[in-house]
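FAQ: What does the model actually see?

It sees only this:
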Amino acid sequence: MAFKIIAEKCAGCGTCVDACPVNAIEMKDGVAEINESACLSCGACAGSCPVDAVQPE
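And it is asked to produce this:
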């Protein structure tokens, strides 16, 4: 299952960036962005997000 960032909900805290085991998430203009080709779909980012901005697609 792939994950996506809901930009409107993203607080820009970077918690998901730190949680990603393969560094597939980076901050762009204060919003997290997932590199889909690098993502393992492990869900670590979703579990770490304090505002539930990371959702399954």
